Amino acid sequence: MIVVIGFGSFGRKVVNFIKNKEPITIIDKQIEDIDDLIKENIKVVVGDATEEETLKKANIENADIVLILTNSEVNRNIAEKVCELSPNSYKIARAVQGYPELYSGLNIDKIVNILESGAKDIANEVDNAKLKRKLMKLKSIILEKKKKCNGKKMLILTHINPDPDAIASAMALKTICEKWDVEADIGYGGNIGYDENKTMVNLLEVNLLSIDQINIDDYCIIAAVDFSSSKQLPMEVEKLDIIIDHHANGDLEADYKDILNVGATSSILTNYLKELNMEPSRKLATALFYGIESDTNNFKRGVTRFDFECAAYLQSYIDTTILEMIENPEISTEIMEVIAKAIINRQVVKGNIALSYVGEITNRDALPKAADFLLKMEGISTTFVFGIVGDYIEISARTKDVRLNLGEILKKAFGGGGHQTAAGARIELGIFKAVSDKEALRKLVEEAIKAKILEVIGIKEKE
Ligand SMILES: [Mn+2]
Predict the structure, then answer these.
(1) Residue 132 CA, ligand 1 centroid: distance in Å
(2) In CATH, which of 3.40.50.11740, 3.10.310.30, 2.60.120.280, 3.40.1160.10 is domain 333-457?
(3) Residue scoring higher pLDDT (435 or 310)
(4) CB within 10 Å: which end of the chain, N or C, has fewer?
(5) Does the reported pTM lie above 0.85?
(6) How far, in Å, is the centroid of ligand 1 from the Cα of 165?
(7) SS3 letters for 46-61?
(8) Where are the beta strands (DSSP E) in 365-451?
């Protein structure tokens, strides 16, 4: 039972919010609409709350919660009496302007300053207004452009070799544009590697156009999602209109640019949908959730509170069966074979570095898979898997060892790149191409790559 002391304009507001949750008893010296309150099952005690008798009438000894909402220095006297008569209740009192120490020494559980709470609400609204303002700008840029488009469509570009975050973000932006009656296509360059990405595109029926299928003249609004660097631009465009991304330091410019330092672009787009009151379809929600999950390496890398909040919002819309299928795609026979070769051919140096040559293969995506897999072997903390794909030697490396920076190592050794824990490189086969004997080629490639890697890591090999 809740006892509310003080039924002025503020007390009324509070009672309105809580009246259907728990039984309430109101105390005030004067209460006008007693009959209405009684109809709503609210008990009313008319009297002076500084007097024991009044408080007892309200059965204050048995109150679970007492709210002291009157607004004068008399609150002190009320609070004293309440503490005495109802020691076990949870007591919330309203702060009174000009009396900062009003309740000092009393056992009040929570003092609420309504001015401060109001100010905080407004400050939160300012944050919210920024997002509202942003979306107004996005909409007006798209709609203004559309007027001059003569029926041409919008093109949403993902980066080269798009990942789930890029694909999901593009899907979300396309959905938003459709709501604004603007038709959009999603374009990508490179290829959709990894089984997870392919499974995602297939199961969620995402319609993606490869840049070979795209005639840029058919489009008049161009957006970039999940990249802001010209190196990632899959095709030449005259001008970008929109960039939405979470990578800093990009060199691309656009009329609308929203770059946030968060774990995934999918989070930014999820927040857009939320603000626009657009409930995502199951497919879109699943894509966005997987985008956040995979870009943050299962909510472990670069993840922010914002990403968690967006993922939580998506949670009730996602299709968990499809999500599970995307997370654990069937592994193709070829990738299985490359993994098997990587295991059999591994050479372990310095106790924990595995180097493995897998020969000639057709699918380069098998290399990172094999490098990931080898890393799971007992005692192995760093893996380098390499093979020949077409006219190149491709290398993929993984490490759990924080002392090594694989991005740096592969850059130094072969002009490759990547992160501390995962990196790759591609070297032209060059003169090795002339070697037709497979066994001889294996030896040459294996020795050359191994020697260079060990040299850069700083290990001298004996024997
Ligand atoms: Mn991303």
Answers:
(1) 23
(2) 3.10.310.30
(3) 310
(4) C
(5) no
(6) 5
(7) ECCCCCHHHHHHCCHH
(8) 382-389, 392-399, 417-418, 422-428
Residue 46 pLDDT: 95
Measure CA 44 to chain center: 50
**pLDDT for 193 beyond 90:** no
Spacing, Cα 269 to ligand 1 middle (Å): 11
Report pLDDT digits (tens) over 233-266.
999 999 999 999 998 888 999 999 999 999 999 9
Q: Tell me whether domains 130-327 and 333-457 share a fold.
A: no
Distance 252 CA to ligand 1 centre (A): 16
Tell me if 416 sits within 8 A of 429, measured CB to CB. no
3-state SS class at 327: helix
CA 393 to ligand 1 center in whole angstroms: 27
Residue 460: what pLDDT?
Answer: 62
pLDDT at 246: 95
Q: From ligand 1's centre to the CA of 296, what distance in Å?
A: 9
Residue 186, pLDDT score: 97
Instruction: Kindly report the CATH number that applies to the domain delimited by 2-112.
Output: 3.40.50.720
Structural domain boundaries in the chain: 2-112, 130-327, 333-457
How many angstroms does the Cα of residue 232 sit away from the middle of ligand 1? Answer: 12
Would the pLDDT of 462 be above 60?
no
Residues 6+ apart with CB under 8 A from 270: 172, 280, 288, 292, 310, 311, 313, 314
Q: How far is the CA of 6 from the centre of ligand 1 (A)?
A: 53
How remote is the CA of residue 224 from the centroid of ligand 1, in Å?
12
According to the model, what pLDDT value does residue 463 have? 43
Q: 260 C-alpha to center of ligand 1: Å?
A: 11
Q: Which residue is it, tokens 């789930």?
A: 164
State in Å: Cα 262 to ligand 1 middle: 9
The H or E element that residue 15 is part of is helix 9-18
Six-digit token string for 119: 């100010």
Six-digit token string for 137: 């700008």
Residue 266 alpha carbon to ligand 1 centre in Å: 7
CATH of 130-327, one of 3.40.50.720, 2.130.10.120, 3.40.50.2020, 3.90.1640.10: 3.90.1640.10
pLDDT (tens digit per residue) in 57-111: 999 999 999 999 999 999 999 999 999 999 999 999 999 999 999 999 999 999 9
